[in-house]
Design a protein that fits this description.
The chain is mainly alpha-helical. The protein has helices spanning 15-19, 48-51, 59-62, and strands spanning 78-79, 82-83. It is built from 3 helices and 2 strands; from the N terminus they run H-H-H-E-E. The protein is globular, with a radius of gyration of 14 Å.
Amino acid sequence: MYAGDNQEAIPGDNWQDEAAHVKNAGNWLTGWMAPLDESATTDNTNTLFLLDVSYSQIGPYVKAAGVYKCVADQSRARVLSVRI
């Protein structure tokens, strides 16, 4: 992202809009990460919220959801009975 691409401002981080999936809210991404003990949400695996310009200001620049995962992160999750 270049400074002029966003009116000289960094992407926002309004968590209420992120959790509510508000389109074009000016956030760096959209969605809400929920641990397994909270109510089920597809936000944990929905790459649309990471990459689509309607939900993520930096999505068009990163172009791949894998860049959001830390290479040192060895954690695993179970999604729909599949271990990932």
